[in-house]
Amino acid sequence: MGYEIQGQVALVTGANRGIGKVILEGLLKEGAAKVYAAVRDTSSVAGLIDEYGDKVVPVEFDLTKPALIKNAAEVASDVSLVVNNAGVLKPTTALSEDAVESLEFEMTANVYGLMRVAQAFAPVLKANGGGALVQLNSVASLKNFPQFTTYCASKAASYSVTQALKDLLKEQGTLVVSVHPGPIATDMGHDAGFDEIAESPELVAEGIVAALKAGEFHVFPDSMAKDVGAAYHSFAENVIEAEMAEG
User: pLDDT tens for residues 3-36?
Assistant: First the structure.
């Protein structure tokens, strides 16, 4: 069963730039009544407020700070859609001297942060009719790239958690969507050296909107992602998305 965006209230983490900003704008174009922009620095969304007025509401947020996550859920108590876009990346291999420290940093934001967002917002979504939770995971959750070993490991973990949330939140009528972009033209993509192959973040926003409307779990929005998704399709359909009992 799909989720209709028209008239709904959403929250997007990391909404001040890159993919998050485009997602926020995409939701407003689809008729969302209001979008909370969950960001570290609330002044960074001033331009969005200038453009969209009171349809954009800034809220202080940081995936590494549990108190801010809980506070955001209290402030945004009217949301029925949460898009957890924020995340961190360090270009670290398994043999780098700081590999363990990098993985700890990425796990704290990309995995523990996701779990805390789910714990904080699941009751809110339930109270507001179920709604939807969207998690930005990446093709790196399915394929490890050695120069980004620790980031890939953290995204593999976040994808695993997302799979669990799909089943856990189904009981309360919450649709969960797992998004797996390839190289996207953002600041993070630039820092990772993806400029020559990066594609538009609008593809991600469009993919999320389409998946919400169709009630689909996986989103593979760009060229690389579509190639990975095509190769992964049978396993995803027959294992990840199938009803399977433990043991």
Answer: 999 999 999 999 999 999 999 999 999 999 999 9
Asked if pLDDT for residue 197 goes beyond 80, the answer is no
- SS3 at position 60: strand
Could you tell me if residue 137 is left (phi over 0), alpha (psi between -120 and 50 degrees) or otherwise beta? alpha
Q: How far is CA 114 from CA 11, 63, 228, in A?
A: 14, 8, 23
User: What domains can you pick out in the chain, each with its CATH number?
Assistant: 9-240 (3.40.50.720)
Q: What are phi and psi of 183, to 5 degrees?
A: -65, 125
SS3 144: coil
Report residue 126 CA to chain centroid gap: 19
28 contacts: CB under 8 Å, gap ≥ 6: 35, 52, 55, 56
